[in-house]
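User: Show me a protein chain along with its predicted structure.
Assistant: Here is one chain, sequence first, then structure tokens.
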Amino acid sequence: MSTEELPSALPLITSSRTFLDSEQRIVDFILANTDRAPQMTSAQLARASSTSEASVSRFCKKLGFKNYRSFQFSLARDLAAQDGEQVTREVSLDDFAQSLANIKNAKQREIASTLDALDEATMRRVVDLFSHAGLIVFAAVGNTNAVAIDAAIKFGQLGIRSVANTITESSTSLALTMCEDDVLVLISNSGKSQRLERIAHAAKRGGATVILICGNTHAPLARLADIVLRTVNYEALLTTVDFTFSKISATLIIEVIYSFLLSVLPGARDAISGYEELIQPDKEME
């Protein structure tokens, strides 16, 4: 079924039709949380609406969708259209302008939803932990390693001892030396990684605080973490691939923490100036 042939989700769930109790709970949650619902997995929607994944699946098929992902995309498309923007699922050089509009919509929604998910009390705690940390270790696996490395460089520029290893065995051995004043930051979209789990256990053994940047607040790693900062990923609006991860939302959270730290850390700007002074000779090219 092409994008044009997809049923329109929003009119279907706001119609006067009679829904079963479980279906009505799904509808009520979606309409009360239009900012969150389109990016939730079927399992997350089921939990949030006090139903089951089977109920969500049956509900989507009852409305005429092949599966939950089709319903999810149609809902996001309808909500975007309410804002006056036409959105499709395709990205192709054959329709460059529309493709850019699709990418723009997905990325803007990622940014807005990730920022909306942050709360002041949690961010104050994170900034305080970073401000007083003896050492911050960033750990990731796969394509999120790039986010971890970037974070270690950024916070190092502020004068905070920060490190990121691409070899998880090195991160594990380092985590075993961490103590109460240290912070371990795990970065994982799925929140499922045995390697990151081992690193977390090692850090907690010495009393370090564990922060998880993750797209799934119910994942196994989230249960280990002291603080979870939720990322939002709208890659499903651009592809039918089951597992994709945009690094934009995870990097955004790092940027938010960095910006707050820059405003509260005494000497942060001097530290940045010192760093720039050290690397300036490398940039002197004709």
